[in-house]
Amino acid sequence: MVSKRRSLRTAVVGVLGAASLALAGTAMAATPVAHNATPVAVAQKAVPAGAGITVKPSVSSVRAWQLFRVTGQTTGLKPGSKVTLQQKQHGKWVSLPASTSISRDGSYSLGVKLGLKGKNDLRIVSGATASPVFNVTVR
């Protein structure tokens, strides 16, 4: 039979242990790096040399939710890789639910519908490779 006192003690020890782990993680994350510290190498995905994406929208202006096409060519990217449409919203690039695979010849074609009225800054991305920014105005 487990007494109330023993149950309470076990609960307190568990809460204190969890709290100390949380504080230790926060302290480690907040620890500043000394200026003379040895630099730490950070692994990053390398963009293949010569990788690029071209883009050509079928229109420059559409009505809200009207379908249009974005086509282009890729170089240095693997066929079958995914390209995704991104839209600049409040200063940040946001991936839209519009993507397709790169064909064997490096081309892609994507059907797009936009609802955000006004001038939309758009680009196509695949991994760390991005196309030049293009604009489509939604009226």
Question: Can you describe what's shown?
Answer:
The protein has 139 residues and is an alpha+beta fold. The protein is 19% helix and 39% strand. It has one helix and ten strands, in the order H-E-E-E-E-E-E-E-E-E-E. Strands 3, 5, 6, 8, 9 and 10 form a six-stranded mixed beta sheet that branches. Strands 1, 2, 4 and 7 form a four-stranded antiparallel beta sheet that branches. The radius of gyration is 25 Å and the shape is extended.
Mean pLDDT: 80
- Cα Rg: 25 Å
- Listing every helix as H and every strand as E from the N terminus to the C terminus, the arrangement reads HEEEEEEEEEE
Helix content: 10-25%
Structural class: alpha+beta
How many helices does DSSP assign? Answer: 1
Shape designation: extended
Quote the distance from N terminus to C terminus.
Answer: 74 Å
Kindly state the number of beta strands. Answer: 10
SSE inventory with pairings:
Elements: H1 4-30, E1 52-53, E2 56-57, E3 61-62, E4 68-75, E5 82-89, E6 92-101, E7 107-112, E8 118-126, E9 129-130, E10 134-138
Parallel strand pairs: 3-10
Antiparallel strand pairs: 1-4, 2-4, 4-7, 5-6, 5-8, 8-9, 8-10
Q: What is this structure, in a nutshell?
A:
The chain is of the alpha+beta class. It is built from one helix and ten strands. Residues 15-35 and 37-44 have low confidence and may be disordered.
